[in-house]
Design brief:
The protein is mainly alpha-helical and about 200 residues long. The chain folds into 2 domains: about 110 residues, Rna Polymerase Sigma Factor, Chain: A, CATH 1.10.1740.10; about 55 residues. The strands form 2 sheets. The protein has a two-stranded antiparallel sheet. A hairpin with a 5-residue loop joins strand 3 and strand 4. The protein is rod-shaped. It starts with a strand and ends with a helix.
């Protein structure tokens, strides 16, 4: 904010310091707050940009948070402190950012439960949460195991059937191919008629 002073008959342009702008704002000049923001905008922007490095999507939100924080802190700022307003604002922006990140992290962690969490069962025993979760690979392994057993069983059964006499082999083969009890006599009759006797 520019302030014109008469000095020795000449107009001289002077910039008001942050502290002078705060005093004007405390004395009731609302335009001093806008001047404070404009005067410190580059510093605030630089600080927020540095904090949001790697999280650029948060930049606009953090700039808004920094502006609101500046308004709040300007209302509380007193010149008696040892820090300049610029230092005070930067520190408050950094602390506010870190506090929001901590809060967000703790909220995220609250929704998480460790798989090692103990659970009390009705029988008085304690098990871990991970032990209650179904194993997604269990059915797959069972299916593979069942398929392997079936295939091995087919091979062994085929070997055994091949050692039987032809008529017995035909009856067993018909049964294995899925002929029902009702279909079996007719099928067996055809097999017996077509099979030469030795």
């Amino acid at each position: 904010m520019l302030h014109h002073k008469q000095e020795g008959g000449r107009d001289r342009e002077n910039y008001l310091t942050n502290e002078e702008l705060v005093k004007l704002y405390h004395d009731g000049d609302p335009s001093a707050l806008e001047a404070l923001y404009l005067q410190n905008h580059r510093l605030i922007r630089y600080t927020v940009r540095r904090l949001c490095r790697g999280r650029e999507q948060d930049f606009d939100d953090e700039m808004q948070e920094a502006f609101f924080m500046m308004i709040k802190k300007v209302n509380k700022f007193r010149e008696e402190g040892s820090a300049s307003l610029a230092t005070y604002i930067v520190k408050q922006i950094i602390w506010g950012y870190k506090d929001r990140r901590r809060t967000a992290q703790s909220q995220h962690e609250k929704g998480m439960i460790s798989l090692d969490t103990p659970i009390n069962r009705n029988d008085g025993n304690t098990i871990l949460l991970i032990d209650t979760l179904p194993d997604p690979t269990a059915n797959f392994e069972d299916e593979i195991s069942d398929e392997m057993v079936r295939n091995r069983l087919k091979v062994v059964l085929h070997e055994i059937i091949s050692t039987l006499p032809e008529r017995q082999r035909a009856v067993i083969q018909a049964r294995l191919e899925g002929y029902s009890q009702l279909e079996q006599p007719a099928t067996m009759a055809l097999i017996l008629i077509s099979t030469p006797r030795a």
